[in-house]
Every structure is written in C-alpha cells, then in structure tokens.
Amino acid sequence: MATEMNFCVVNLVFLLVFVSASGSDSAxxxxxxxxxxxxxxxxxTFSERIREYECSFTYASQGGTNEQWLMSVGLSDDxxxxxxxxxRPQGKSYLFFTQFKAELKGTKIEYANAYSQSATAGQSDVxxxxxxxxxxxxxxxxxxxxxxxxLSKLTAIGRTRHDEL
Length: 165
Description:
Blueprint (H helix, E strand, L loop, with lengths): L1 H19 L5 H4 E8 L6 E7 L2 E10 L4 E9 L5 E7 L8 E10 L1 E11 L8 E2 L5 E3 L3 E4 L10 E8 L5
Antiparallel strand pairs: 1-4, 2-3, 3-6, 4-5, 5-11, 6-10, 7-8, 7-11, 9-10
C-alpha cells in the first residue's frame, strides 16, 4: 500500500512539475533528449541542464549493443522544483548495469526511485528493491553487492535553493 501511495505521489509531483513547466517559456523549463546507453564496461556520463540546474547520469553496462534512452529535465514555474527522469522507452533494458549514479546539481533531492522495468504497453513500472540503491542529498547511486544489475528508469525530484526576495 505504501509503495502504491509513493508511486502515486511521485507521479503527481512529476506531472505537476512538467505541467507547470508547460507555460509560456516551456522551452526554457522542460526538455527531453535522446541518448545512447553504450555497453562495454566503460563509464559514460550524459547530462542535461536548465539554467543553473543540471542532471547527470553516469553508468557502466555490459552486453548487447547501444540502447536508445531518454532524459527529461524540468523546472517548475516557481523555480522551486527541478526534476530529472532517465529511462528506456521500450520498457525493460537488456543491458546489465555494473554501476549507475544520477546527480542533480543545484538542488537537494526530495524524492527519487529507480526501476528495473519502465511502464510501456500495459506494463507497470517495477521498482528496484530499496536496498539496491541509495538516495543522498544530490545523488542516487547503486549499492555495491546489492544492485541486481537491472535498470530501465530512474526518477529524481529536487528542491532548488531558489529563494524569493
């Protein structure tokens, strides 16, 4: 029940950030970019930013060939929430991740979750077990020895350090 509630809350918050970002200057408040996740065991990083806020996804994976993934970043109208989602649009990744880390620069993470499968074609998001990853002030990182090597989606929402005058 708590997991379903968390799922609903985060989807609502994520939706609110993106809906509020769809105002007159939406190009400055929201963007989605495609990138390739490359296997081979080498550490790669992909980053996107809006203003002074940045989301970086660092990973190493094995098996198969490149996969197309998406990264969406958004900033709420009041500049108080910055969100980042990284996912494989086809659902489950066939790559084995040896490590991953998402970092939100300029924010303090309020919510984050990682998933072994992302929702597609009637399938639901399948969250990783809580012991598989750690959420810090600005990072979401795999836990060595506990991470199952399956990752298809990662979502983080951070509160910015924006203060009204």
